[in-house]
Amino acid sequence: QVQLVESGGGSVETGGSLTLSCAASGYTYSGHCMGWFRQVPGKEREGLAHIGGDGSTSYAPSVKGRFTISRDNAGSTLYLQMDSLKPEDTAVYYCAADLCWRLVQGPDEVRNWGQGTQVTVSS
């Protein structure tokens, strides 16, 4: 059974940085992707970034150049380094793991989620 546990959320001022972590267990990373999504109340969950088994990465335009996704060598921990944070980055951030095409297709196709961690950016 796949288990994903996020940590590292919190409050920060505009322009600040945060690093989110996601510890994965019961998951075979090879051939799959892991990624980060976020959700604001009343809006759809938004895909931010994902990383493949070969280390290839992809980012949404809203975070490209500010956020960096990475994983440890064992593939058991996923990270999201968030820099130059803006108030519009305020959301609950979720870790996800699944076949790559499911992460690319969108949140409705993703089968494995973490519980979410709140990020609040004040102006």
Would you write up a description of this structure?
By secondary structure, this protein is mostly beta strands. The protein contains 1 helix and 11 strands; from the N terminus they run βββββββββαββ. The chain has one helix at about 100-105; strands at about 5, 10-15, 20-25, 30-40, 45-50, 55-60, 65-70, 75-80, 90-100, 110-115, 115-120. Strands 2, 4, 5, 6, 9, 10 and 11 form a 7-stranded mixed beta sheet that branches. Strand 5 and strand 6 form a beta hairpin. It starts with a strand and ends with a strand. The mean pLDDT is about 95.
What string, H for helix and E for strand, traces the elements in order? EEEEEEEEEHEE
Oligomer: single chain
Our measurement of the CA-to-CA distance between the termini, rounded to an integer number of angstroms, reads 40 Å
State which percent range the strand residues make up.
Answer: over 45%
Large-scale geometry: globular
Uncertain residue segments: none
Give Rg in angstroms.
13 Å
Alpha-beta content class: mainly beta
Number of strands: 11
Instruction: Give the number of helices.
Output: 1
**Mind summarizing the main beta sheet?**
7 strands, mixed
Helical content, roughly? under 10%
- Mean pLDDT across every amino acid position: 94
Key terms:
123 residues, mainly beta, 1 helix, 50% strand
Secondary structure blueprint with pairings:
Layout: E1 3-7, E2 10-13, E3 18-25, E4 32-39, E5 46-51, E6 57-59, E7 67-71, E8 77-82, E9 91-99, H1 100-105, E10 112-113, E11 117-122
Parallel strand pairs: 2-11
Antiparallel strand pairs: 1-3, 3-8, 4-5, 4-9, 5-6, 7-8, 9-10, 9-11
